[in-house]
Predict the 3D structure of the following.
Amino acid sequence: MDDRVGIATTVDAPPSEGKPSGGRPQGGLGSTAVARILTLPGQVVSIVVLVVPLMVALYMSFTDWSPTRSSLLDAQFVGFDNYSDLLIWDTRFVYAVVRTLLISAVCLSLEFVLGLGLAVLFLREFRGKSLLFSAFLTPMMILPVVVGYTFWMLFQSNGPVNQILEFFLGSQATLEWFRRAPLAILAVIITEVWHWTPLFFLILLSGLNSVPENPVRAAVILGANPRQVFWRVVMPMIKPVIIVAFVIRSMEIIKLFDEVYMLTRGGPGSSTETISLYIYKLAFNDFQLAYGAAAAFIVLVGSLALVHLLLAPVRDQLLEGGR
Amino acid sequence: MHAKKLSFPLAVVMGAALVLVLFPVFWIAMTSIKPPIDWNASPAIWLPSEPTLINFQTLFNPDAIREYGVGGVSQAATKSVIGSVLASVVSTALSVLIGLFSAIGITRYGSGSKATPLIILSGRMFPPAAIAVPFVIIFSNVGLTDSYTGIIAIYVAATLPFSTWMLKSFVEDLPREIEEAAMIDGRSRLAAHLTVTIPLIRGGLFATTLFIFILNWSEFMFALVLSYSNVSTIPVQLAKYVTATAGTLYGVQAALAVLAMVPLILAGYLIQSHLARGMTFGAIKK
């Protein structure tokens, strides 16, 4: 079977040439030449625009370079100083990492639960289903910047969220969402969950729809109640799909920037600062480019390890069950 | 299964979910047609007292709002709209074209190195703020700072993994025998791919194109740090409006947000059956 998951698995082995059924082309270029022509542009772009900058950033992270110096090549080589400073002395960085991980964990759990609940509702047929399906996908189509801006409006102290709270709880419910750290973090979480629950809903529904009927029927015949059927038969079958959803979302939420930039700019103080926001401020407000690059590599290694761990239990299943 | 009504409790759950999902969209749409008097009212006004398109006019003619006795819109959004269209359309076309070639190469010839997925994964997981750092340095050395060429190069690189793998999943759905039949007929390999493979994955190409467009149109950070005066995109302009006029020009800001949002929602509905495929790099084909 060819691999169903482009991410985190290696590229397919080349098809064996010269199979009896394989048509031999009569003219033109050989297969190797054609393969080269086809993949060259992509490789060139990836190397020029991805690998080279990564290398520059890696080199930079071992120097003390900043834009006030003449060129990157004149920078002082400082070994792992940037890295040790970040991990040992820079509490703001450590807090940003922990905060991002906590926000991610809370958001992904909520998105998963809500997405799964909605997906289960959508397993039955009902009137207006396709219209509702489209409606529920709407948030994930909206630009992160616009989502951030919209929720910034909603959470204003004279905005509709407080109005609704006051209506139900009285005037003591006027909350200063962006002046108090816990509320600001809550605002970020609500925004993220609203924006991305549809993706979990979409992926999980697709997984649930692909569960074959026979094992489910067999379980019912053997006397399993609906709850047992769901948790013991259906859920294990869609495990690969669940993991794909988590991996894709983890990769994105670790980089959380746009929504927070529009909502709080990391404030109040630095209480909603995510990793990306901190690196952005380091590089583009304080011009500590080398230091920021080191921070980014710590994050990269950490997130690769995280995804690796997440994928480990299902790597083989993904090849079969990612449909 | 024939469609029937939901039972009452389920209908209530569904209705509540629908309200939660649509309320923010409703709010920004309403704000974009509110006259200035409604913008910052306390308590907030849900429906415009007098619906108006003045906010949208103001985006392209900053003086239009003055008839309401409001100033303060310093910049037209015209340049950012043009910039967004230019950057998104060009980089989408390039990304899909290069991705299509790579997809055929990888699927049919197993080319691409073993390290490719790791490199691409690394690229996707590296904090964009930090990818922007080396770009700022490299661009300033080759004169690409504040230019559309630079922005487009980054957008193509950033979306290439998506376009490659999404298209790869469409090519995989196509039986190899169809191309081989064309080759037996005496067509060269390349000709077979161009004349047989590509027309057969038309639908997939269309979906991928719109999906990549959504990604490019939404991009914010690279445009933010790599644009100064020549280059602008809608998300950057929206951030500028909010910074410059915090909490005073809701209507105009909301109008720009709606302008940014509408094309994507339309594109998203058009390709909703392929969204999962795009988001999961072709892992989920439904």
